[in-house]
TrEMBL record:
<keyword id="KW-1133">Transmembrane helix</keyword>
<feature type="transmembrane region" description="Helical">
    <location>
        <begin position="53"/>
        <end position="72"/>
    </location>
</feature>
<dbReference type="GO" id="GO:0016020">
    <property type="term" value="C:membrane"/>
</dbReference>
<dbReference type="InterPro" id="IPR007248">
    <property type="entry name" value="Mpv17_PMP22"/>
</dbReference>
<dbReference type="GO" id="GO:0005739">
    <property type="term" value="C:mitochondrion"/>
</dbReference>
<dbReference type="GO" id="GO:1901858">
    <property type="term" value="P:regulation of mitochondrial DNA metabolic process"/>
</dbReference>
<feature type="transmembrane region" description="Helical">
    <location>
        <begin position="92"/>
        <end position="110"/>
    </location>
</feature>
<keyword id="KW-0472">Membrane</keyword>
<protein>
    <recommendedName>
        <fullName>Mitochondrial inner membrane protein Mpv17</fullName>
    </recommendedName>
</protein>
<dbReference type="GO" id="GO:0015267">
    <property type="term" value="F:channel activity"/>
</dbReference>
<dbReference type="Pfam" id="PF04117">
    <property type="entry name" value="Mpv17_PMP22"/>
</dbReference>
<comment type="similarity">
    <text>Belongs to the peroxisomal membrane protein PXMP2/4 family.</text>
</comment>
<keyword id="KW-0812">Transmembrane</keyword>
Length: 181
């Protein structure tokens, strides 16, 4: 276990964005599996959907969050309670609303929705997901930005996001389930 930790620390220092992209891919895929196995109560597991969520984590979520946290750290700072509050404000006012839209579009594309169906998907899901975002993430981010070093902030978020991703997976698959009823 100690060797795995050393290898992880080395990868995180040398390749922070790539390492956190892999983390996000694994955790988003796992979040989808939790949704399918325990929330959707699916009889047949959709492994393509799981791989799509993992791909979104690897190519979008991991790189975007790590890059965003680096930008916040560079322009706002890294220490102090006022810095943490400013970071949370920026994160929740700028990043979260736009990132949720990007996430919904990416999921919609994976679900093979055309432009008209993407617009409906966003209209149906965006508001509820954003409101639920504001119920969870400001407190998580306040703790994250206050006490967690930059290289571990994406890991903290991705760990909490395991449950969040389960919710997103479930919420964004509702229309798919309703198509068959």
């Amino acid at each position: 276990m100690r060797n795995i930790n050393r290898l992880y620390q080395k990868a995180l220092r040398k390749y922070p964005v790539s390492t956190q992209a892999v983390q996000a891919g694994i955790l988003m895929g796992l979040g989808d599996q939790i949704a399918q196995n325990f929330i959707d109560d699916s009889k047949n597991i959709d492994f393509v959907r799981t791989m799509q969520f993992a791909g979104i984590g690897f190519f979008i979520t991991g790189p975007a969050t790590r890059t965003w946290y680096g930008i916040l750290d560079k322009y706002i700072g890294s220490k102090g309670s006022s810095v943490a509050i400013k970071k949370v404000a920026c994160d929740q006012l700028f990043f979260a609303p736009s990132f949720i839209a990007v996430l919904l579009v990416a999921i919609g594309i994976c679900q093979e929705k055309d432009i008209a169906k993407l617009k409906v998907k966003i209209a149906n899901e965006y508001r509820d997901i954003l409101i639920n975002n504001y119920k969870l993430w400001p407190m998580v981010q306040l703790l994250n930005f206050s006490i967690v070093p930059l290289n571990y902030q994406a890991l903290v978020v991705q760990s909490v996001a395991l449950l969040w991703n389960s919710y997103i997976s479930y919420r964004t698959s509702l229309d798919k389930h309703n198509e068959f009823k």
